[in-house]
Fold this protein.
Amino acid sequence: MCFKVILVQILAFIYALSFSAQTLIINEVSQGESGNMEFIEFVVVDNTVVYDCADSSPPTIDIRGWIIDDNNGYHSPGNEGVAGGAVRFSNDVLWSAVPLGTIILVYNQGDISPSIPADDISLSDGNCQVIVPINNTSLFESNATTPGDVACSYPGGAWTAGGTWNNIILRNGGDCARILDLAGCEVFSVCWGDNSQNNQIYFGGSASNTVYYFNDTDPTNQVNWSSGCSDNETVLDATTCGSNDQTPGSPNNAINADYIAQFNNGCMPITPIATTAASTDASCGLCDGTATANSSGSIPVYTYSWFDAVL
């Protein structure tokens, strides 16, 4: 043979996003069918971790201390939609090692939407989701101090057990759902209405009976977001729009499911990668043969790099 084959696998979960070391994104935000039937859905992602192709489970990250909030004034010139205080993920062991690709649904227990699935606070049941009310005293903490109207302004102390939706209640005329890191700095936000400044993802108009959801491959790109109806046929609503586009606790569509699947193999066990390569001479002494390579396991798809034997 005139060449040898070296197979290199580059997994598809190595992707390009406009942020680095991101560990949570917002995947869906809903104002609910009526009242305050609100929820925020997150997905755990990270484009900086290293996957072990021989491991049967995805890497985990620590989200303890990350803050959930609405507009703190940073997104509106008149501080519209600011609810006092904030909520954060507690120091509970559940949040210390959350597998990539996990959907986390946080909802208002004071006015529960009929679309919300049953609570699920286990990471060992194999369904890659956590569904929990914000008042859970083990998993959330709250702080009554209203942060300043800048990008990074949150208290480091005085957090108490249990969250309250009143700290992040979402205003129809304009507000934001936001994630902030351990330093109290915003890393992701979805805003609407008169919360129109310093935006990452933004929708004009009222959010009444509306759900906003990520539906493609880059959550930081506005064109990859859609708005839909949050009506439910079990709720009598004079402003019904005739559909329910909410998907709390689940991917938003097939493309969103594929995006999430790149982190956790579609919530299936990850098998070790196996590769085979074969070559065939077409003419004796000439470099005009063929070579084939096949891979299975780990998280597809695969990229193959071929190297000449003299290199």
Observations:
- The longest helix spans residues 254-264.
- Residues 1-20 have pLDDT under 50 and may be disordered.
- The radius of gyration is 23 Å.
- The first strand starts at residue 24 and ends at 30.
